[in-house]
Amino acid sequence: xxxxxxxxxxxxxxxxxxxxxxxxxxxxxxxxxxxxxxxxxxxxxxxxxxxxxxxxxxxxxxxxxxxxxxxxxxxxxxxxxxxxxxxxxxxxxxxxxxxxxxxxxxxxxxxxxxxxxxxxxxxxxxxxxxxxxxxxxxxxxxxxxxxxxxxxxxxxxxxxxxxxxxxxxxxxxxxxxxxxxxxxxxxxxxxxxxxxxxxxxxxxxxxxxxxxxxxxxxxxxxxxxxxxxxxxxxxxxxxxxxxxxxxxxxxxxxxxxxxxxxxxxxxxxxxxxxxxxxxxxxxxxxxxxxxxxxxxxxxxxxxxxxxxxxxxxxxxxxxxxxxxxxxxxxxxxxxxxxxxxxxxxxxxxxxxxxxxxxxxxxxx
Length: 364
Known about the structure:
Layout: H1 13-16, H2 24-42, E1 44-45, H3 47-51, H4 53-62, E2 69-72, H5 79-87, H6 122-135, E3 142-147, H7 154-166, E4 171-176, H8 187-195, H9 199-214, H10 217-235, H11 238-242, E5 246-252, H12 256-268, E6 274-279, H13 287-290, E7 298-299, H14 319-333, E8 339-341, H15 345-348, H16 350-356, E9 361-363
Parallel strand pairs: 2-3, 3-4, 4-6, 5-6, 8-9
Antiparallel strand pairs: 1-7
Helix pairs in contact: 2-4, 2-5, 4-12, 6-7, 8-12, 9-10, 14-16
């Protein structure tokens, strides 16, 4: 008997959308199993994909992809997305010659509207698609998914700034999987996140704003200040709201009973740019990944049961190690040498440099 009976019925997202909301939990569990098994054969990026399994299922069930555009930032979280979008039969060719790309790739599928490798480009790409939609008179949705780490880059801020200024209809999902901007605080937080993303709340909020404009100026300012402070006490999204986004969250990105209603409300809202703050766990659902220091960010082939990675004996030292040790040798002789990295000290070997020269190492 198949371990993935529901997933076996899904070739494309339109098949997923024929299923009931009550079946989505099982679909997510089966998708997680398939992702783990595939990466155990090919190696690749595992932890990031496991963290967005529920989000991937919810997005493809709620939105009409590929007509609605779904843009993934840092494409190494896209393996579950590829499995649901007609590429499951090739998923064990990931990163192999002639096989599937380890990232989103436009030439590979119409479900990949933007090709991405590293980070911080999804909001800019999504904004461009949203503007093109308006110019062509279309009405489809554009959803950009970006991780908390990628939000530290300048391009992401520029895109948020431009989207807010244009009041463009764009949905941004902030996948907060390492640090929490505003962590959930129980049932009340979950309830408020769902209520404040709903049509009635947006409608009432708009009426309040229109009413405030008709009051004397001193009362208008007081009413606006009360509305703003109350909302921020509930949600903690003041920074995004100041840049013109309507903020929803934080919500549990692994709880489909929260995630699906919020995404539906956001989809149906006649609103400008909206940011949905989703809290997830990298490596979710696979204990070896959850307990690993890097949450199994990048792995070789591994044993699914034990999590032990199969590491072939190297015939030569790795390039990264040679680079790092050579740089350290030069830095010992020349104190003008500094190292700059963008959130990738271990991936570039600059963690070795940083241990010896912490004052001369800058992670930007």
